[in-house]
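In this supplementary section we document a worked example of the pipeline. Step one takes a protein sequence of length 211 as its only input; no multiple sequence alignment statistics are reported here. Step two produces a three-dimensional model, which step three serialises into structure tokens for compact storage. The input and output of this example are shown verbatim.
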Amino acid sequence: AAAAYWFRRITGTPFLVHWSHDFLSDWGWRLEAPTHLLYWPVIRWLSRRADSMRPISEPLATSIIKGGVPPSRVKLLPTLLHSDLFVPADHPDSRPNPFHARPPEERQLLFVGRLAKQKNIPLLLRGTAGLVAQGRLIHLWIIGNGELREALEGLIARMRLNDHVTMLGRLSPAELQPYYAHCDAFVLPSNHEGLARVLAEASLCAAPFVC
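The serialised model returned by step three reads:
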């Protein structure tokens, strides 16, 4: 953004910002890392000088305007979904149940997202461990990749959850659909989100969710 701002100063090229998180008022993001506290005033300064802001949700647009950006510069950028792919389990186009080999009394919990600090996956693992300790028959499926994958694999091993947690890596939208449609609950423990597209995908598949 800083480079784009100076390029605009030199050439007159419009300075456009794609806005995917609440960088202005969200303390969850600011406290994730010491550098974020340093970024915040810079982002605030730059955002007020952009020719146009493209937030991905209405709450983000409201936050930007409250942060001092004129409403005329804020244009909502809709998030596109594969609504033809994400369908409920009873839809003719739904793919086969990926949990068919699991015990019928076992509850299937699902997480989909980037394996990053923002998603607070250790909280989800602690919750899973608590349910297992209570004698609940559950299995957690984690779909996605990211910088914390190796650390999360180590945490799962230390918490002795290998028999109760499966990490599947990244899947395509078509591969994701049956997991959404057949899970007992979709769980999103994020500290903050700009627009959680996975919740919309889960909703299209009629999955109950906790977030």
